[in-house]
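Project standup — Tuesday

K.O.: blocked on the structure for the chain from last sprint. Re-posting the sequence here as requested.
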Amino acid sequence: MNNLIVFCWPPCSWKTSYLSHYPDYSIVKSDDEIKKYDGKNLSQNELNIFWITDSLKKIENLRNDENNIVYDSTNLTVLRRKEIFLIQNISFTAVNFLTDFNIIYDNWEKRGKDIAIESLFYLKCIFQKSKKTEWFQKIITIEQHKKSDYKELIWFLKTWVLHLDTILEENKDLKFLYYFWKKWKKDFFAEYFNKLNYLDDLILEDKLALLYSEIKYFYDDFINFLDITYTVSSDDFIDWFFENILKNKIKDIWLNKQKCHISFIKLWKLF
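H.V.: unblocked you, prediction finished:
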């Protein structure tokens, strides 16, 4: 039985560079299928339908030729990957590219910024890691992280003092949030600290929970200003922020996630 390798992760995460690991495989690239529709004046939703359909047809044809295949596309969500499993008589392997936003941001700058940074950030947020419960027979995980990503964030939350130049340079996720809000005449961190000033007795978990609740306001603005066919619930967006920016990046949060959620509910009602 021939094999289908399914790449999963947003643009600028070095997926294409990883193709060198499969020199004898046939390659189906979403970029190639999308280019066929240049100048056709299609909506994003129409374009998605056409290029995905074309990609799956090409995979089906290659399978009939008994080729092993790599599907080089984003394949970000369970729903998006669902149609792949309609292909019969083939084994499925997923490759999850777990790349932090610092690396994605750097790659985005190097490749000429051919995608809106707001869209790129959003695609990262909605990513759902592939699991064997989706009918993948094998999962390969490639992780790329910058070790110094969040060292200033611990100090920032414990002391309530924000050195913007330092923290934003070392945390591209936060830098993006900050400048997105600035673009729409808001100041994410200033609003956060104004609220902290009314709650001098907050423990660390409550400080984090308040930051966590602020993301909901950001999410509402973010979605309202973007015209993207992908959708994600605000709860999923907040969970992504918590999992990727707070948990495991800040001391003691791993053991106190439940406390943070309780504090979040309390503070959300207050503000």
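K.O.: great, moving the ticket to review. DSSP finds twelve helices and five strands in the chain. The first strand starts at residue 3 and ends at 8.
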